[in-house]
C-alpha cells in the first residue's frame, strides 16, 4: 500500500513515499481505509531528531498521522461494535503506525462513528485534539460558572477546549496574539482574549476575577504559556498541562496550595487501565459535534503528497485551528 513516512528521525524533508505491506487487524482491531488525516505536535515530535521527554522508541520505516477518518474495511476477532462499511474516526496508537497511508489498523475500542454532519477532513481534525480537550476538562472538573484560562486559544487543542468550556457554562479567558487568532477566540465564545505577548496574563486574570485568579488554567503550549498559567491560577486551583517541561514549578504552586496535572491523550488506554476510556471520550466529543456545540476549525488542507509542507506549517507556530491531510485522493 502507499504511505508517506520516514526512514530516520530528522526535519520535514525526511518524509518520503513508501510502499508497505497492507496491515491486517488483530484482536479488537479494525482496519480503516483512510480518507483523511491531520497533523499534530505529536507528529512533529515523533519525526524530529531532537530527543525529548516524549520520545518513544520507533521502528522504521515509520508512518506518522495520529488522526484518522475513514471507512472500516476489515474487522479482527472480538470486535462487535463496528462492521465493514462503517464510517469511523479516531486516533491510531501513538506507539504504532499512523494514518498517512492508504490503510491503518486501530483498536476498535478507541474509535467512534463519524458524525454525519462532519466531513472526513473535519472528523480527522477533531479526534486527537478533541479527546485531549475533553479529558483535560474532565480531569480538572471546574465548577459551573468558574473562570478558566485557555492558553493558545486558537490552536489545535485550544480552540476545541474553548468551545467545550463554553458549552459547560464556564467563563473562558483565552490567550492569543495575532488578529486572526484573537478573532477566532472571540468568535468561539471567549469572554476575554488577552494578548500573551504584550499583556501580563496573570495580573489580568486576577483583575478579572476580583483578585483570586482562574480556577483552572490550561497550558496548551508550554514555555511562556505554562509560566502564565502558573501565575494566573487561583489558590486551591489547578493547572493542566499537555506539554512536558523540565522547569521546576513546585515553588510557584506551593503557597497557593494549587495543583499541576500533566495530561496525555488517552492515558488510561495507553497504560491499559481502561481500554474503552479513549473511545468513550471520543464518542462524547462526537455527540457534541453532531449537536453543533463544537466544531473543528480546518484552517488548511493538504494532499498527503505535500505532507512535508503541512509539517513545516505546524512548525511555524502560526497556524490556527487544525490542518487536514487529504489521504484517499492525495497521492
UniProtKB/TrEMBL annotation:
Domain called Enoyl reductase (ER): residue spans: 10-325
InterPro entries from the UniProt entry: ADH-like_N, ER, GroES-like_sf, NAD(P)-bd_dom_sf, Zinc-ADH_QOR/CCCR
Coiled-coil region: none
UniProt xrefs under Pfam families: ADH_N, ADH_zinc_N_2
Key words of the record: NADP
The protein's name: NADP-dependent oxidoreductase
Amino acid at each position: 500500500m502507499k504511505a508517506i513516512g520516514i526512514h530516520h528521525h530528522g526535519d520535514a524533508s525526511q518524509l518520503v513515499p513508501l510502499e508497505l505491506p497492507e496491515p491486517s487487524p488483530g484482536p479488537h482491531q479494525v482496519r480503516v481505509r483512510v480518507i483523511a488525516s491531520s497533523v499534530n505536535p505529536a507528529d512533529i515530535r515523533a519525526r524530529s531528531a531532537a530527543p525529548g521527554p516524549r520520545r518513544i522508541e520507533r521502528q522504521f520505516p515509520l508512518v506518522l498521522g495520529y488522526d484518522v477518518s475513514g471507512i472500516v474495511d476489515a474487522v479482527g476477532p472480538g470486535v462487535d461494535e463496528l462492521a465493514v462499511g462503517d464510517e469511523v474516526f479516531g486516533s491510531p496508537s501513538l506507539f504504532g503506525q499512523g494514518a498517512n497511508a492508504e490503510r491503518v489498523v486501530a483498536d476498535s475500542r478507541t474509535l467512534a462513528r463519524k458524525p454525519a454532519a462532519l466531513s472526513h477532513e473535519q472528523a480527522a481534525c477533531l479526534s486527537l485534539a478533541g479527546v485531549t480537550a475533553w479529558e483535560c476538562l474532565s480531569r480538572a472538573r471546574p465548577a459551573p460558572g468558574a473562570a478558566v484560562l485557555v492558553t493558545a486559544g486558537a490552536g489545535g487543542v485550544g480552540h476545541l477546549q474553548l468551545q467545550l468550556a463554553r458549552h459547560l457554562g464556564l467563563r473562558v479567558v483565552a490567550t492569543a496574539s495575532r488578529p486572526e487568532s484573537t478573532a477566532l477566540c472571540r468568535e468561539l465564545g471567549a469572554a476575554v482574549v488577552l494578548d500573551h505577548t504584550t499583556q501580563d496574563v496573570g495580573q489580568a486574570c486576577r483583575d478579572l476575577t476580583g483578585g483570586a485568579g482562574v480556577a483552572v488554567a490550561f497550558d496548551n503550549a508550554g514555555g511562556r504559556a505554562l509560566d502564565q498559567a502558573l501565575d494566573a491560577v487561583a489558590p486551591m486551583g489547578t493547572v493542566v498541562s499537555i506539554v512536558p517541561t523540565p522547569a521546576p514549578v513546585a515553588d510557584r504552586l506551593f503557597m497557593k496550595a494549587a495543583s499541576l496535572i500533566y495530561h496525555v491523550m488517552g492515558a488510561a488506554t495507553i497504560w491499559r487501565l481502561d481500554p474503552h476510556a479513549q473511545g468513550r471520550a471520543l464518542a462524547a466529543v462526537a455527540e457534541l459535534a453532531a449537536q453543533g456545540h463544537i466544531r473543528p476549525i480546518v484552517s488548511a488542507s493538504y494532499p498527503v503528497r505535500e505532507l512535508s509542507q503541512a509539517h513545516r506549517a505546524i512548525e511555524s507556530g502560526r497556524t490556527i485551528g487544525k490542518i487536514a491531510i487529504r489521504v484517499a485522493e492525495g497521492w
